[in-house]
Amino acid sequence: RCRTEYENRDEATKGDETTRKQFHAFVLFLAELYLNLEIKGTKGQVTRAEILQEGLRELLNALFSNPVDSNLICAVKLLKLTGSVLEDAWKEKGKNDMEEMIQRIENVVLDANCSRDVKHMLLKLVELRSSNWGRVHATSPHTEATPENDPNYFMNEPTFYTSDGVPFTAADPDYQEKYQELLEREDLFPDYEENGTDLSGAGDPYFDDIDDEMDPEIEEAYEKFCLESEHKRKQ
Question: What is the top-level taxon of the source organism (predicted)?
Answer without folding.
Answer: Eukaryota
